[in-house]
Write a structure and sequence with these properties.
globular; 298 residues; mainly alpha; single chain
């Protein structure tokens, strides 16, 4: 009986550790790493490099636990009002502080080892930038998530894995800044869209996010502007069909949300919940297109 109880306790702890890292969002960091890799290498055998798989594993779980764990740790003042918490996302409890901080400390140590493996100083600096943004997006005194426009602006952290792996194989001079800006505006749009369902909760907790300050309508319009910018840059610097895909996948749902109000929170949440699948499909299309465009199979 005691063994059964201990097993259940371990399984419950394991479930909590996985749940904190938001499994549905794992591809948000691992995906850019994979896309950055496919844009940087010249042959299929490069995917056998240990660096690629270490980075893939790091950005699949440890990095997500670090990012979302610190977010939950710092957001207890707002999460009690948040409609996404409890069912769609777990509600953090303070008796897990010690475990969470120990694991985050372990992730920091592993990031030092990962950084040591990176072959260029530029990629190491970008990894350091990722760690800083992932920490201070949530943590005080900076708490970027509560600062106007910096909340979305700092979400460049989601595309940095792709920049890290690119700079591990290519010089900084070959980095396409229009595509970086396009990816950056996409990440800003994703952040602002994800903040729309939180407007009431953040307002109740007196957290001055960009979405709270602008209100539902104007925040949605700004989200549409971000997505439209990313779509145009994709059409100009990748392929026209990628721009069309971006318009259908991101601009059309945002236009739909534009006609909703704060009272339509359940409809808004339904659209928000579709984005992990949307991002996976779009990222997969981009990866496959680049893979075959440059004939990486040889």
């Amino acid at each position: 009986m005691i063994q059964i109880f201990e097993t259940q306790k371990i399984m419950k702890q394991y479930h909590w550790i996985i749940n904190i890292s938001r499994p549905r969002f794992w591809t948000y960091l691992a995906g850019p790493w994979a896309v950055g890799m496919v844009t940087a290498v010249t042959q299929f055998s490069d995917f056998a490099d240990l660096l690629f798989w270490v980075g893939m594993l790091f950005f699949l779980w440890p990095a997500n636990f670090f990012l979302y764990g610190l977010n939950d740790f710092a957001d207890r003042d707002t999460d009690q009002w948040n409609p996404k918490k409890g069912n769609y996302e777990g509600l953090y409890v303070s008796d897990k502080d010690r475990t969470l901080l120990m694991i985050c400390g372990g992730v920091l140590v592993s990031s030092l080892i990962f950084g040591w493996m990176l072959p260029s100083i530029e990629s190491q600096y970008v990894l350091l930038l990722w760690l800083l943004l992932s920490s201070f997006y949530s943590l005080r005194p900076l708490r970027l998530k509560s600062r106007l426009f910096l909340d979305s602006f700092s979400n460049v952290l989601y595309i940095l894995p792709g920049v890290i792996v690119y700079l591990a194989y290519k010089p900084l001079s070959e980095l396409s800044w229009p595509l970086v800006i396009g990816a950056w505006t996409w990440s800003m749009g994703m952040h602002l869209f994800s903040a729309l369902p939180d407007i009431a909760a953040d307002r109740n907790a007196n957290v001055k996010t960009t979405a709270v300050w602008l209100g539902h309508r104007y925040a949605t319009l700004l989200t549409l502007l971000y997505f439209a910018t990313a779509t145009i840059l994709s059409a100009l610097y990748v392929e026209l069909w990628m721009g069309l895909l971006g318009f259908l996948a991101y601009c059309v749902p945002t236009i739909y949300v534009l006609f909703l109000t704060e009272k339509d929170n359940q409809k808004l949440l339904a659209v928000y919940k579709a984005f992990p699948l949307i991002n996976f499909i779009c990222g997969g299309c981009l990866f496959i297109y680049i893979f075959f465009k440059y004939n990486l199979l040889g």
